[in-house]
């Protein structure tokens, strides 16, 4: 390169750098003259927490590292939601933990200081969750889940007849259905706690516990979408939904492909065919798909009440009549089904379900109920207590065990439960019941009453928090 070429190159580089700078300076000067110049930002949205909230986190990080780790991995933590956003209470709230308040005066750590003192609720309730999730809380409040304590007391002879003990109820029934929470000496009463039952009666008047499905303190959406979230309660001889699901094609496909599912899709966007292949419990009963909206009311989409002694429409279920139209709700469920199935398939399935319901109602339950009523009417069975006579047990298990399995097995397409665990067992239970009942009628002898029935010591008083005085 000669010296003239070098000079030209240097000049061009100078112009390439400085001409745009000069133009920008001139445009900036024009902007300033027009009042459109850049200035320091005067308003900022910053994610922060109070000293009290920070103290909660740091203290629990030391005392309960498992709680802290769960929260730290949660969507709440990523959104800046702290302990106090859920647990902060009004000073007049009935569920304030006074024992927790004393921690601030203990001086046991640098976080146990009066300057961090705030009123803390002993139990977080759906009412607390409604601060951020109002729609979900309102939907849940209408559901059978939230109102299951009322349903249980109206339907279950174990409670009304006092045929099990309070400790048996606490460890068994109430673990899923819920307790009536009470405070004792500044803490939650051990007789009612721990408990995250779906129908728990809270001290603030709300019903249920969101952590039944979204376990604390991660409150995972992914966890609630998996069938394992439901199988803690929906299992066993009387309502084996998880066993039925696992037997069905839906369950088989889920177990084969669940590692491919997008469990963390945003709320309201979880889509069949895109995020998952085969449905889970939530997919059918709660999640949205197509034009069907997401709901936290599990009473929706039901066209039969298959847990009831006599199968009825949800609006006719006396313990808790649903404010729904069964045909409208069936159409919603059909719309969920047709995301993956043809209309012919879906209509055929519902035809099978309707036939199974009629078969159970007409051939098993109604004749058995008629016979039971006749035995009571003629004084051959004693009405004062339930379960202390064999025929009462046989009748109960006909609808509560085999009858439910037959109906639920058909509804969720599990042939072994519909037949071998269901109608097959219904036949044998029905025959045993009818044979002994007819013998009792023919002989005129009163049915044998078990002289001792262990654990029949439970309180038969209906909870005043749910029932009016006239209903107790």
Short summary:
With 472 residues, the protein is mainly alpha-helical.
- Percent strand: under 5%
The biggest sheet, with number of strands, parallel, antiparallel or mixed sense and barrel status, is: 2 strands, antiparallel
Tally of DSSP helical segments: 19
Low-confidence region ranges = 6-17, 29-37, 41-46
Radius of gyration: 31 Å
Backbone structural class:
mainly alpha
Helix/strand order, N-terminal first: HHHHHHHHHHHEEHHHHHHHH
Count of extended strands: 2
- Helicity, in percent? 40-55%
How do the strands line up in the largest sheet?
Answer: 1-2
Shape: globular
Mean pLDDT: 91
Word description of this protein:
- There is one protein chain.
- This protein has 472 residues and is mostly helical.
- Among the domains are: 49-122, no CATH class; 124-219, no CATH class.
- 48% of the residues lie in helices and 1% in strands.
- The protein is built from 19 helices and two strands.
- The protein has helices at 3-33, 51-63, 65-72, 75-78, 83-87, 98-103, 126-129, 134-142, 148-155, 157-160, 166-177, 221-225, 241-247, 249-257, 281-285, 326-337, 343-377, 390-411, 415-443; strands spanning 183-184, 187-188.
- The chain has a two-stranded antiparallel sheet.
- A hairpin with a 2-residue loop joins strand 1 (183-184) and strand 2.
- Helix 17 (343-377) packs parallel to helix 19.
- It is globular and about 80 Å long.
- Residues 6-17, 29-37 and 41-46 have low confidence and may be disordered.
List the helices and strands and how they pair.
Elements: H1 3-33, H2 51-63, H3 65-72, H4 75-78, H5 83-87, H6 98-103, H7 126-129, H8 134-142, H9 148-155, H10 157-160, H11 166-177, E1 183-184, E2 187-188, H12 221-225, H13 241-247, H14 249-257, H15 281-285, H16 326-337, H17 343-377, H18 390-411, H19 415-443
């Amino acid at each position: 390169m000669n010296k003239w070429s070098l000079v030209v190159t240097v000049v061009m580089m100078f112009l390439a750098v400085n001409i745009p700078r000069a133009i920008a300076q001139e445009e900036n000067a024009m902007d300033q003259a027009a009042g459109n110049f850049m200035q320091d930002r005067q308003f900022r949205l910053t994610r922060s927490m109070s000293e009290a909230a920070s103290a909660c986190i740091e203290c629990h990080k030391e005392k309960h590292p498992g709680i802290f780790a769960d929260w730290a991995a949660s969507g709440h933590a990523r959104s800046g939601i702290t302990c106090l956003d859920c647990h902060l209470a009004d000073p007049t709230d009935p569920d304030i933990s006074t024992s927790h308040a004393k921690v601030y005066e203990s001086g046991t750590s640098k976080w146990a200081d009066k300057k961090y003192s705030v009123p803390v609720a002993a139990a977080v309730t759906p009412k607390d969750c409604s601060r951020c999730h109002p729609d979900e809380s309102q939907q849940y409040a209408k559901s059978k889940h939230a109102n299951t304590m009322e349903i249980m007391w109206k339907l279950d002879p174990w409670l009304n007849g006092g045929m099990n003990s309070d400790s048996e109820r606490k460890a068994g029934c109430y673990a899923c259905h819920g307790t009536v929470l009470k405070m004792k000496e500044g803490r939650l009463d051990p007789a009612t706690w721990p408990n995250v039952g779906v129908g728990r009666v809270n001290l603030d008047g709300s019903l249920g516990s969101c952590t039944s499905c979204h376990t604390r303190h991660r409150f995972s959406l992914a966890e609630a979408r998996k069938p394992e979230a439901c199988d803690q309660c929906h299992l066993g001889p009387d309502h084996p939904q998880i066993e039925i699901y696992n037997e069905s094609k839906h369950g088989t496909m889920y177990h084969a492909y669940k590692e491919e599912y997008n469990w963390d899709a945003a709320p309201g966007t979880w889509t069949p065919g895109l995020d998952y292949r085969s449905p889970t419990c939530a997919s059918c009963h709660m999640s949205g798909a197509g034009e069907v909206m997401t709901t936290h009311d599990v009473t929706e989409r039901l066209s039969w009440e298959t847990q009831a002694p006599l199968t009825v429409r949800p609006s006719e279920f006396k313990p808790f009549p649903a404010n729904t139209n069964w045909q409208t709700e069936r159409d919603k469920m059909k719309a969920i089904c047709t995301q993956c199935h043809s209309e012919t398939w879906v209509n055929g399935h519902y035809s099978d379900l309707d036939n199974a319901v009629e078969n159970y109602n007409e051939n098993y339950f109604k004749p058995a109920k008629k016979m039971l009523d006749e035995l009571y009417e003629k004084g051959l069975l004693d009405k004062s207590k339930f379960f202390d006579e064999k025929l009462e047990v046989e009748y109960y298990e006909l609808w509560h065990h085999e009858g439910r399995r037959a109906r639920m097995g058909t509804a969720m397409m599990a042939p072994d439960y519909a037949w071998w665990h269901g109608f097959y067992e219904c036949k044998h239970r029905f025959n045993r019941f009818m044979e002994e009942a007819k013998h009792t009628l023919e002989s005129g002898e009163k049915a044998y009453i078990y002289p001792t029935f262990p654990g029949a010591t439970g309180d038969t008083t209906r909870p005043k928090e749910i029932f009016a005085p006239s209903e107790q």
